[in-house]
C-alpha cells in the first residue's frame, strides 16, 4: 500500500512537471507565431515603403525562412553544448538583436537592412524550433504527440492571428489614401511620406526587443527540465543496430520533403492573402484582416485535432484529410473571383492546421539516438517558406496573383502520398 502511494505521488509530481513544461513551451510557441506572422503585414508594407515589385516583396519570407536552412545544423550543435533550456534563452536573445536591426533599417528605409533583421530573427527562431519541437514531441507518449503539438499550434496561431492586427493597425494605417496620394506627389514630398511610413515600425520593434530579452531571462531561470534525446529504448536500439547515418531512414527524408513543401504553402496561404485581397480590388483596411482569418481557421483545425487525435482518427489519417481539403480549397480559389476567392485562400488554414503536428511524429518515429539530427533536418525543411513564396511572387508577376496559386496543388498531392505510403517506408 505504501509503495502504491509513493508511486501515485511520483506520478502526480511528474505530471505536474510535464504540465508546467508544456505551459513554458506554449509561451515560446506564442512568440514563434507572433514574430513569424508579422511577415504578412511586412510584405505589403515594405512593398509600398521601399517601392518593390511582387517578387522583391516576397524576399521578406526568403530572408526569414532561409535562416532555418542555414542555421538548423549549427543550432543542433549549439543545443548539444548548451542543453535545451539555455539554448532556448539564447534563441530569444538572437531574436531580440534581429528586432533591434529594424531600427536603423526603418530610419534609412533600406530594404537590405530589413532583410538582415529578418534573417537574424529567423536564426533565433531556428535555435528555438530545433529545441522546442522535439522537446514537446518527446515530453509524452509518441502516439499523442500530434495532440500536444496541436496545443502548441493553438498558442502559435492565436499569436499569429493577433500579430497582423497589431502591426497592421500601425504600419498600414490610412495606407490606401497614402498610395493614392503618392501618385500625385512631388518627388521630395514622396520621399518624405515614404520615410515617415518606414519609421512607423520603430516603436513596435523596440517593444518586441524588450519583451524578448525579458523572456530570455525568465526561461534561463525557469524550472524547465532537460530531456535525453540520445537514449533509445531496447526495441528502438535493436532495430537501429545497423544504422550508421540519418540517411538510412527514408521515412524521415520523405518527411523532410513533405515539411519543406508544407511550410511553403502555409506561408503562401498566410503571407500572400493580404496582397492577393488588394489585387482583387479589396482595400488594405479590409485586407489586413485576411491573415487573421487564415490563422483562426488553423486554430479551429487544431481544436479538432486535440479532440480527435488519436482517439477517433490517426495522425496519418488526419494528414490525408488535410491534403484533400487543401486541394479542394486551392482549386476553389483559382476558379472563383473576388472576396470568395480570397476566402478560399484564408480557409487553407483549416487544411494546414494538422499537417505540421502529423508530419513531425511520423517523421521522427523510431530514430532513437538520431532524433536530434533528424529534428535538425526537419527544421531545415522550414526553408520551404523561403523558396515557395518568392516563386509564387514570380508567377504572380508573370501571370497574375490568382493563377500563381496553381503552385499549391502538387504540394498537397505529395502530402497525400506521404500520409498514405511515404511514412511507412522504414528502410532502404
UniProtKB/TrEMBL annotation:
- What family does the database annotate? Belongs to the major facilitator superfamily. FHS transporter (TC 2.A.1.7) family.
Q: TM segments? A: 21-46, 58-78, 90-107, 113-131, 151-172, 202-221, 252-270, 290-309, 318-336, 342-362, 374-392, 404-420
The family database entries (InterPro entries) matched by this protein are listed as: Glc/Gal_transptr_bac, MFS, MFS_dom, MFS_trans_sf, MFS_TsgA-like
* A Pfam cross-reference name: MFS_1
Described by its record, this protein's role is as follows:
Intake of glucose and galactose.
Q: Where is the Major facilitator superfamily (MFS) profile domain?
A: 21-427
What are the alphabetically sorted keywords of the record? Cell membrane, Membrane, Transmembrane, Transmembrane helix
Q: Which organism is it from?
A: Gillisia lutea
Keyword hit for Heme: no
Subcellular compartments:
Cell inner membrane
Q: How does it sit in the membrane?
A: Multi-pass membrane protein
Q: What protein name is recorded for this chain?
A: Sugar MFS transporter
Amino acid at each position: 500500500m505504501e509503495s502504491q502511494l509513493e508511486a501515485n505521488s511520483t506520478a502526480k509530481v511528474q505530471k505536474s512537471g510535464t504540465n508546467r513544461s508544456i505551459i513554458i513551451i506554449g509561451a515560446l510557441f506564442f512568440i514563434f507565431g507572433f514574430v513569424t506572422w508579422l511577415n504578412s503585414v511586412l510584405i505589403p508594407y515594405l512593398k509600398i515603403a521601399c517601392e518593390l515589385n511582387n517578387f522583391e516583396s516576397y524576399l521578406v519570407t526568403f530572408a526569414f525562412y532561409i535562416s532555418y536552412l542555414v542555421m538548423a545544423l549549427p543550432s543542433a550543435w549549439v543545443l548539444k553544448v548548451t542543453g535545451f533550456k539555455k539554448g532556448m534563452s539564447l534563441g530569444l536573445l538572437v531574436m531580440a538583436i534581429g528586432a533591434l536591426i529594424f531600427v536603423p533599417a526603418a530610419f534609412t528605409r533600406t530594404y537590405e537592412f530589413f532583410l538582415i533583421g529578418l534573417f537574424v530573427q529567423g536564426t533565433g527562431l531556428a535555435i528555438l524550433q530545433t529545441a522546442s519541437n522535439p522537446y514537446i514531441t518527446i515530453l509524452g507518449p509518441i502516439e499523442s504527440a500530434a495532440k500536444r503539438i496541436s496545443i502548441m499550434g493553438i498558442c502559435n496561431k492565436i499569436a499569429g492571428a493577433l500579430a497582423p492586427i497589431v502591426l497592421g493597425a500601425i504600419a498600414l494605417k490610412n495606407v490606401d489614401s497614402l498610395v493614392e496620394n503618392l501618385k500625385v506627389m512631388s518627388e521630395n514630398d514622396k520621399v518624405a511620406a515614404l520615410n515617415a511610413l518606414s519609421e512607423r515600425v520603430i516603436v513596435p520593434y523596440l517593444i518586441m526587443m524588450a519583451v524578448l530579452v525579458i523572456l530570455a531571462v525568465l526561461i534561463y531561470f525557469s524550472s524547465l527540465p532537460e530531456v535525453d534525446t540520445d537514449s533509445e529504448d531496447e526495441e528502438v536500439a535493436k532495430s537501429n543496430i545497423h544504422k550508421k547515418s540519418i540517411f538510412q531512414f527514408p521515412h524521415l527524408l520523405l518527411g523532410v520533403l513533405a515539411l519543406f513543401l508544407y511550410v511553403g504553402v502555409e506561408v503562401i496561404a498566410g503571407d500572400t492573402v493580404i496582397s492577393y485581397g488588394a489585387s482583387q480590388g479589396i482595400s488594405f483596411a479590409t485586407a489586413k484582416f485576411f491573415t487573421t482569418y487564415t490563422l483562426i481557421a488553423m486554430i479551429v483545425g487544431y481544436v479538432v485535432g486535440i479532440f480527435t487525435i488519436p482517439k477517433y482518427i490517426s495522425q496519418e489519417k488526419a494528414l490525408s484529410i488535410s491534403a484533400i481539403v487543401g486541394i479542394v480549397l486551392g482549386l476553389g480559389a483559382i476558379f472563383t473571383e473576388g472576396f470568395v476567392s480570397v476566402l478560399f485562400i484564408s480557409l487553407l488554414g483549416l487544411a494546414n492546421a494538422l499537417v505540421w503536428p502529423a508530419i513531425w511524429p511520423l517523421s521522427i518515429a523510431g530514430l532513437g539516438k538520431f532524433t536530434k539530427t533528424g529534428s535538425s533536418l526537419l527544421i531545415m525543411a522550414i526553408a520551404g517558406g523561403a523558396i515557395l513564396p518568392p516563386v509564387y511572387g514570380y508567377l504572380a508577376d508573370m501571370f497574375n496573383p490568382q493563377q500563381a496559386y496553381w503552385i499549391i496543388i502538387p504540394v498537397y498531392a505529395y502530402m497525400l502520398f506521404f500520409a498514405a505510403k511515404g511514412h511507412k517506408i522504414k528502410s532502404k
